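The data are passed on as follows:
___
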Amino acid sequence: MSKTTTLKRIFVGGARNFTRSGLVSFATVLIMTVTLIIIGSLIFLSAILSHTLSAIEDKVDVNVYFVTDADESDILAAKTRLERLDEVALVTYTSREEAITEFRQRHQDDELTLEALDQLGDNPLGASLAIKATDPTQYETIVNFLSNDANVSPSGAPIIDHINYYQNKTVIDRLTTAIDATQTAGLVIVALFSLASVIITLAAVRLAIYTARDEIAVMRLVGASNMYIRGPFIVAGIISGAVSGIIALALFYPAVWYAGGKLATWLDGFNLFTYYIQNFPMIFGIIVGSGMVLGCIASFLGVRKYLTV
C-alpha cells in the first residue's frame, strides 16, 4: 500500500470517526470552543491593554519648568540642544505670557483664583519646555542630559525650577505593572482551560477507542502499523479543534461588533470590531491553530495511553 493511499485512508477514517462519535464529538467540540473563546478573549484583552498603554504613553511627556527670571535666549538655546538629540521627537516652547494666558483660561470659572492672581500684580509662572521622546523608555536619558548640561543645570546656571519626569514615570510604571499582571492572569486562565480541554478530549478519545475496539483488534491482527491505527483518532481530534475554532470565530463576530461600538468611546477610539476585521488572518490562525493543536495533542495522548499496540 502506497503512502498516499495510507494517508487518504487515515483522513477518511478520521472524518468517519468524528461523524460517527455523535454526542462524544459534540461534547469535545463544546469544551474546546469554550477554551478557544477564552484564548480569543485574551487576544482582545491584550490588544485593549496595549492600546491603552500606548495612548497614555503618547499623552505623557516631560515638562521642564524654568525659573521666572530665566533668560528666554538661554531657554531657546536649551530647546535647540534638545532637538538635536536622537531620543527627542518634539520640543514645544511655552513662554511666560502663554503660560499665564493658558492658566487664566483653565481657571476662567474660578473667580477666587483669578482674583488672587490679579492681586499678585506680576506673572508668577515661568516659561517651560514640553519634551516628547521618540520612545517612552528614553525619557530618563533626556532628563540626565538636562541634569548634566552646564548651561541649564541648576549646578551650572540655575534656570531650571523643576522637571516633572519622575511623577509621570511612576504612572507609566504602575500601569505597565498592572497590564503585565493582567496578561499573566489571562495566560494562567488559558492554561487551565486548555488543560481541561485536553483532559475531556482524552476521555472522549478513550470512549471512541472503546467503541472501536473490535475494529482495532482486526487491524492489529492483519498487521496494521501503529500510525495507521492511531491516525484516524488524531485526525478526528484535529477536525474537532478546527470546528471548534470556526465556531469560536463565528461567535466572536457579533460579540465584537456590538462591543466595538459601545466601548469605542471608553477605549479612546479603539474599536474591537475594526481590530477583529483588520487582524482576522492572525486571529484565525491563532484560534483555529490552537484548536487543531489541542485536538491533536489530546488525541495522540489518548491513543498512546489507552490503546495497546
